[in-house]
Amino acid sequence: MSVEEIFEKALSENRKNLSLGEAFAVCEYYGLPLLGYRFIGVDEEVPEALGLSYPVVVKVDSPDIVHKTEYGGVKTGIKSREELVKAIEDIKRSVKAKNPNARINGFIVQEQVSNAHEVIIGGLKDEQFGPVIAFGLGGVLVEILRDVAFDIAPITPQEARDLITRIKGYQILEGYRGIPKANIDALSEVLSKASRMFADIAKYVKEMDLNPTFVSSEWVKIADARFTLL
């Protein structure tokens, strides 16, 4: 299914968001680096071999669930297949208890990341400027510091680097509390690609949220993606 078909299908169903699986498909089309994952269908048995290393994180994949944690749709620190089976059943019960009409496509399983910086790459459609790309520190820091910088999309890798250095907390990306310095070159490339993607899909999307995006000294990996439709 093409990117256009993904969005047109969602809009034809009067949806406000893409599912996580659909959002990942859009990111992959534009060459954005995703954190390795395994999709498990809602009625599929958890395989003995995931192709991932424990501990893992599991998330619900549903077009009706945007903020997954609010519905009990995320479980972390899973250390074995047995724990994963239980976590999936717990998520099913929690989601259905809080939203009985929610459609569950399945579950996204990812390796749990440590020793990497957490940043947010976002996009919004501004009435005056059109597509705008946003960058800031992720996790609890984005809510506490509200340290986010903006530019009109799309931007080049050099413009992306300039955007990254504009945030007040840039020094944290230079190395913080045992976390190595972030790979700013790789991050600039990913931010530029994300800006081009958002500029392309802005005819369908009013907000984009690639959060968390993890940055190590060697790589950049997007762990979650949300697209809010027009």
Give the CATH level 1 class of the largest domain: Alpha Beta
Radius of gyration from the alpha-carbon trace, in angstroms: 18 Å
How confident overall, as mean pLDDT? 95
CATH superfamily of the largest domain: ATP-grasp fold, B domain
Kindly name the structural category.
alpha+beta
Largest sheet geometry: 6 strands, antiparallel
Percentage of residues in DSSP E strands: 25-35%
Give the tally of β-strands: 10
Oligomer: single chain
Q: Structurally, how many domains make up the residues?
A: 2
Are there runs of 5+ residues with pLDDT below 50, and where?
A: none
Distance between the termini: 20 Å
Work out the helicity level.
25-40%
Q: Strand-and-helix sequence, N→C?
A: HHEEEHEEEHEHHHEEE
CATH topology of the largest domain: D-amino Acid Aminotransferase, Chain A, domain 1
